[in-house]
Every structure is written in structure tokens, then in C-alpha cells.
């Protein structure tokens, strides 16, 4: 007797979802396999041929074909399983969580619980529990008492207005104007290690001695052009308003007869009366100040971080002049290879409303920008 072919009824909406699952990159293999089984069954392909084409057993085809027939797309999800009965009573688990999420007693003199200290506390309460069990409970609930973070609230009364002003400069700059991000990186140390740095080896990172000789410091002034990523720089021994004004004049000379919108932070030298008087005599230059505690909005801070990681942190400098030469060499190479900021892949997938023509380098609404990483300049 010939085998009867069981054809599933698959709606157009279900078929579209199943095809999406098959094409989805990074989807679990089991989800792709189940979707392929149902799609082939919906086309009237026999179970034996489905198993051969998908690479599974015929009972697997029968199981997922039946689950889809009974429950639709929801039937392709894994059914909940009881699993192994919990070895820690619910009351004990809740007590562990309660103690973990509250401050330890003052008499212990600690700021947070460790698994061993908490196990000792529970033992004294008459609930013996190993520190390994406590650690498993913490992992299950993604609790990490040993870790801590930092945060900062901006108290600037003009916070929202300043954020919108600066982000609008990035996303929709004025016509025939140049937007620059200016700041100084002060106290860059010319450190000379007491022994040569050991190079990287398979399984070993590059290593440097803990002790060093400091030959002095320098201050780097930098102006990052948002549209191109190019940097105008100058190294000076101090960072007073005199040096800042001297650098502003250097930037103005680098962009003659162009309107300049300069983003900078609230450092005192940036608002000095001498600087303000010079700006009044040069109306083509406008300063835009970041909010208090909001210097992350200044893109040049990203550049400073890249410079530190790639050229300074592992460097060895026998003089301040050597340090300045290294910084200058790096910035020259940066300007040769830099390119405008680009959106990352996850940003491209998100639905942001364009504020500039298609193809423009900035296409995010101000409200969508929440971190420095979304404004990062990519070079190299």
C-alpha cells in the first residue's frame, strides 16, 4: 500500500513567520529545523523525505508536525519541563536573597556580603548552607555583590537645552559651518619604565614593570572636526586661559573665513573674561558648552581615550619632548586614516527618525543618543 502523505495547513501569515525563522542569522539550530519541517510538510513533502532533507529522524518530523497541527506556531516552542526538584527550600532561598539585598550588620564592618560570610550568618541563624550553594543562588538570579558601579546626576538647570543644542550640532550642523569638539587632556605623564617592556607572546600579554621614572608632563589641546574626524592639536606645558586662547587662535587660523561652532566643557579657562572678549571680537566663532557633569557629549573625549589606549598607555618616554613627538606622530597618522563617524550595526537595525538626507553620517534623533558610544568616531 503506498504511503499516505500528510499535508499541513499553513496560513500565509504562518508561512511568512516560518520563513523568517529559517533565514534569521544567529537563530538556534533547533528553531530553524522545526520551521523547515513545517514548511516542507505544508508543501506536501513525505515525512521520510523531510527527515532526509532536514537531516533529522522521522520521529522528529512526526513530533513537530503534530505539535504544529495542534497548537500552531506556539507548538514549535519547547514545552516547560519540571526538571530536577529544587534542593534548597523556597524559604531558605528567599532568606538568602533578602540578606544579600540588604546592608550587612554594622558590627561586621563590611560593605557587602561574600558567600562565606553569608553562609556563616545563616549557620548562626540555624540554617546551615554551603557558600557554594549561595553562589549558585546568586548566579541564578544574576546577583553580583562583589561588583559595583558609578553614576552621576547632572544638576545643570539647562541640561535638556544644552543636550539638544549639542546633539543638533552633530546631527544637523548649520550650513557652511564647521563643528569642532575642543578640550584639553592635561597632565599626560612622560613615564620611562625601569626595564624594557616585554612583548606579547602566545598566551601572554605585553608586560611592563610596575615602577617607573617620571620625566614631566604635558597638556594636549585638541580640536576634533565632527564631519571628517580630523584633529588639530597642540601640546603646551600648562592649561590656563592663556594657553586655551592661544589654541583657539590656532584653530581659527586652521579654518579661515569659516563659521566655527565649538563644543567644549565648563572648565574655568573656557569662560575667562579674556577669552570672552576675544570671542566678542571674532563673532564667526561660537562656543557651545556641555552640561555640568556631561562632558561625555564632547566627541573629543572619545579621541583622547583612543589616543591613550593606542599610543600612550604602553609607551616608554625618556623626556617630555619624546612624549610630544609620539603624540604628534600618532595624530598625523590619525588624520591620514580617519573617516567620518559611522553607525554601528545595532543602531542601523533600530528605527531612528532621520534628521538628515539618506547617506548622511548622522541620522539619529537627539532623544535616541544616550551614551558616548553612540557618538564615537571610528578611525583606524
Give the helix/strand class: alpha/beta
Look at the structure and give the CATH class of the largest domain: Alpha Beta
Q: What is the strand tally?
A: 5
Task: State the helix count.
Answer: 13
How many structurally independent domains?
Answer: 3
Question: Mind describing the biggest β-sheet?
Answer: 5 strands, mixed
CATH architecture of the largest domain: 2-Layer Sandwich
Radius of gyration: 31 Å
- Termini separation (Å)? 69 Å
Shape: extended
Query: Which spans of ≥5 residues are poorly predicted at pLDDT below 50?
Result: 344-380
User: How is the CATH topology of the largest domain named?
Assistant: Nucleotidyltransferase, domain 5
**What value does the average pLDDT take?**
85
Q: Which percent bin holds the helix content?
A: 25-40%
Order of helices and strands: HHHHHHHHEEEHEHEHHH
What is the fourth-level CATH superfamily of the largest domain? Ribonuclease H-like superfamily/Ribonuclease H
Query: In which order are the strands of the major sheet placed?
Result: 3-2-1-4-5
Strand % is 5-15%
Question: Can you offer a commentary on this structure?
Answer:
It is a single chain. The chain is an alpha/beta fold. It has three domains: 12-76; 90-140; 159-198 and 208-375, Nucleotidyltransferase, domain 5, CATH 3.30.420.10. The protein is built from 13 helices and five strands. The protein has a five-stranded mixed β-sheet, with helices on both faces. A hairpin with a 5-residue loop joins strand 2 and strand 3 (231-236). The protein starts with 11 loop residues before the first helix and ends in a 31-residue tail after the last helix.
